Amino acid sequence: MSCDDDNTLASQKTITVASKTVDCIGFVSQKCLLIKDKNQQDWNYFYDTITGFTYEEGFEYEIIIAQREIENPPQDASSIETTLVSITSKIKKTSENLPN
């Protein structure tokens, strides 16, 4: 846990970002990142953005992110803000076991 600029508590964790995005439907039709926690096997759809992270298809990333809860988020928006802390690896590869 750490404090961000607003002095609100933010939790940090390491995730893997897949080498491809997928079509998904949140509030609108969009492209979603596929992510998984460090010791997780299945990929999860990530419908939001990661502030400070520029995704490049064809690379699998291991990144550290900080997440903090937003007080009074806009209607139909996430109540969690996700920010890039650092990129620990960026490997050119095709991620395995991606959903269809």
Report what the structure shows.
The chain is an all-beta fold and 100 residues long. The chain has one domain. Helix content is 0%, strand content 51%. Strands 1, 2, 3, 4, 5, 6 and 7 form a 7-stranded antiparallel sheet that branches. A hairpin with a 3-residue loop joins β3 and β4.
Rg over CA atoms: 14 Å
Shape: globular
Give the class from helix and strand content and strand pairing.
mainly beta
Low confidence ranges: 1-7
Helix content: under 10%
Quick gist of this model?
By secondary structure, the chain is mostly beta strands. The protein is 0% helix and 51% strand.
Per-chain topology:
Elements: E1 2-3, E2 9-17, E3 22-25, E4 29-37, E5 44-46, E6 59-69, E7 80-92
Antiparallel strand pairs: 1-2, 2-4, 2-6, 3-4, 4-5, 6-7
Descriptive terms for the model:
0% helix; disordered N terminus; seven-stranded antiparallel sheet; single chain; mainly beta; DUF4377
